[in-house]
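User: Hi! I'm working on a homework problem where we have to compare a predicted structure to a textbook description. Could you give me the structure for the chain below?
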Amino acid sequence: MTDYFDASAFDAFHEYLCEKAELIKSEHVVSKQLLHYLLSAQQVIESRAEYLPAVKQNIHLAIEFAMLLGLIAISEGRNDRAPSVPRVI
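Assistant: Happy to help. Predicted structure tokens:
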């Protein structure tokens, strides 16, 4: 069995989870299943980066999944933050 990394599938999955995060950002309870998928995607990418060049080239996706998890934890979505603009807390 050969490992294969499909970057477009991970991109599509990340996009889907970003849309889901927008829908649930006002919720106080988040599905464990969603959290599991976010953590699993990040862990799969990080664990295979050492062995597959295609994964190593796309290691930034692991960071994006971790960032999305952090945004969900603070009830924010990807579109809530503007680049190069300081946040007022």
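For your comparison, note the following. DSSP finds four helices and no strands in the chain. The mean pLDDT is 89. Good luck with the assignment!
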